[in-house]
């Protein structure tokens, strides 16, 4: 047994991962705000969450990990942009239509990067979750930590700080907090820490839901922070094991999530491990829509760069370190990936069958020790290179490196031929899942996936080159 260590922001140190339920893991990732295309910085945080999930599955088995991701489809930014794009539609219909478009692009981007689809995807604007949010707000109010002001509901941070620790993920100077000073915006800085909004009173021409609190009618919509607390609880319960997001989410978003769940769900520690990926930078500044310094996967396509080269680039830097984006570095990663594909291709020359028993245990252990050391992917990639250089038989090397690819996710089994170029993202995802099932020798699951692929109008064939997909 190789132990898994993760850097926990809550305690600011690497800790051994001890799940709540033996050999199982539940994790929640703050999903995208679907008001624009995801940029490479955003995508870095989903490559990280995907790696973490794959590593958990590599340790615990495919079905013992439950990964939940939300889609933020109601917040300040989505509402603002939906109003601009579809001004004539009824506000909720406009928001739905607008966010659905960007959500579709988001899943396409994830598929291009071989990021597995989370087991559960929750939509903040879904009535089912809005009801959970309303209930959580009611609980917070009943516990005495929320108040109503001008049709909105706010969280009382001073009162919270008198009983609980304020500033668990980020140091906050509590002496600067002023009673009764409120912030309505979803995003604000540490210097601006104040009572934050749980439920925003209705504004003209904006989407809203009915809400009644303490006999008062308060039509409006949820604040951003309450969304994640309620959706994570709905799918994972509280407490749960792991919560991920980019470092910018530590404060206020994640800090507020903790406060809300502590008093609303009455749990001391709603999440055991908080993991944060560092930023992708451009010329020393964080890549971000508001800085107008961002690139998307479309920019890669325009330059003929394989999106997986970006995944490979991300693997070369620890998730907890800032990474500076340059086209030179990406092109070098593209070349590096081609080289890796060639290395795998050379092993295939003998055209032998893939067998689990050919996986080399010593190299597997080396790889596992690397990935289990807080996702040390540079070390894991070095183990793969060491494997290529070793004097093992080519079928052992091949079986071992394809086993590593369950975590790396670089399509090493079928760089060009595995997925028909025309197959849509959902089909490719099923094929990838089937590849993993086959490597696990989970034949019933492999057959089930084949049937599912077939039902969607595609055939899958097992060849010595891996799976080949074609239209029925
Ligand atoms: P958003 O769609 O703005 O809600 O952000 C989605 C995810 O991307 C969050 O986890 C952010 O923390 C993360 N993120 C935003 N900008 C960057 C960046 N430049 N580098 C890495 N992660 C980022
Ligand atoms: Zn969130």
Automatic annotation (TrEMBL):
Q: Where in the cell is it found?
A: Cytoplasm
Principal subcellular localization: cytoplasm
List where this protein forms a coiled coil: none
Reactions accelerated catalytically: tRNA(Cys) + L-cysteine + ATP = L-cysteinyl-tRNA(Cys) + AMP + diphosphate
Give the top-level enzyme category.
Answer: ligase
Q: Which GO terms describe its molecular function?
A: ATP binding; cysteine-tRNA ligase activity; zinc ion binding
Single Gene Ontology BP term? Answer: cysteinyl-tRNA aminoacylation
Cofactors named for this entry: Zn(2+)
The record ties this protein, via CDD domains, to: CysRS_core
The family database entries (SUPFAM superfamilies) matched by this protein are listed as:
Anticodon-binding domain of a subclass of class I aminoacyl-tRNA synthetases, Nucleotidylyl transferase
**A Pfam family it matches:** tRNA-synt_1e
Annotated cofactor note:
Binds 1 zinc ion per subunit.
Segments forming domain tRNA synthetases class I catalytic: 17-333
Assigned protein family? Belongs to the class-I aminoacyl-tRNA synthetase family.
Assembly, per entry: Monomer.
Q: Which HAMAP family match?
A: Cys_tRNA_synth
What is this protein called in UniProt?
A: Cysteine--tRNA ligase
Q: Which gene encodes it?
A: cysS
């Amino acid at each position: 047994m190789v132990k898994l260590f993760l850097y926990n922001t809550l305690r600011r140190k690497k800790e051994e991962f001890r799940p709540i339920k033996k050999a199982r893991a539940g994790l929640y990732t703050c999903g995208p705000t679907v008001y624009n295309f995801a940029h490479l910085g955003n995508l870095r945080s989903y490559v990280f969450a995907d790696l973490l999930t794959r590593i958990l599955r590599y340790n615990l088995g495919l079905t013992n990990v439950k990964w939940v991701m939300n889609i933020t489809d109601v917040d300040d930014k989505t509402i603002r942009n939906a109003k601009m794009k579809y001004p004539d539609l009824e506000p909720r219909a406009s928001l739905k239509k607008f966010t659905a478009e960007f959500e579709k692009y988001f899943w396409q981007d994830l598929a291009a990067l071989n990021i597995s689809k989370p087991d559960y995807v929750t939509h903040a604007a879904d009535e089912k979750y809005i009801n959970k949010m309303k209930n959580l707000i009611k609980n917070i109010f009943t516990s005495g930590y929320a108040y109503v002001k001008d049709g909105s509901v706010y969280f009382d941070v001073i009162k919270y700080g008198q009983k609980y620790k304020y500033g668990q993920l980020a140091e906050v100077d509590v002496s600067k907090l002023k009673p009764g000073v409120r912030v309505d915006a979803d995003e604000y800085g540490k210097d601006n820490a104040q009572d934050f909004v749980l439920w925003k009173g209705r504004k003209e021409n904006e989407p809203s839901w009915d809400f009644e609190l303490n006999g008062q009618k308060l039509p409006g919509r949820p604040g951003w922070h309450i969304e994640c607390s309620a959706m994570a609880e709905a799918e994972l319960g509280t407490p749960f094991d792991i919560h991920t997001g980019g470092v910018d989410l530590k404060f206020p978003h994640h800090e507020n999530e903790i406060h809300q769940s502590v008093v609303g769900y009455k749990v001391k520690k709603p999440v055991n491990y908080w993991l944060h990926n560092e930023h992708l930078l451009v010329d020393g500044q964080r890549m971000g829509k508001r800085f107008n310094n961002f690139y998307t996967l479309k920019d890669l396509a325009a330059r003929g760069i394989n999106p997986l080269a970006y995944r490979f680039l991300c693997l070369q830097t620890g998730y907890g370190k800032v990474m500076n984006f340059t086209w030179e570095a990406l092109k070098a990663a593209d070349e590096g990936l081609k080289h890796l594909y060639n290395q795998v291709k050379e092993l295939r020359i003998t055209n032998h069958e893939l067998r689990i028993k050919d996986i080399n245990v010593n190299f597997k252990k080396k790889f596992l020790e690397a990935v289990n050391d807080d996702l040390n992917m540079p070390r894991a990639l070095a183990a793969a290179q060491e494997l290529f250089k070793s004097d093992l038989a080519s079928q052992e090397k091949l079986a071992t490196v394809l086993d590593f690819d369950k975590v790396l996710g670089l399509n090493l089994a079928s760089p060009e031929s595995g997925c028909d170029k025309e197959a849509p993202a959902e089909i490719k995802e099923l094929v990838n899942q089937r590849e993993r099932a086959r490597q696990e020798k989970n034949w019933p699951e492999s057959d089930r996936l084949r049937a599912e692929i077939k039902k969607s109008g595609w055939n899958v064939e097992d060849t010595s080159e891996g799976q080949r997909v074609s239209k029925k």
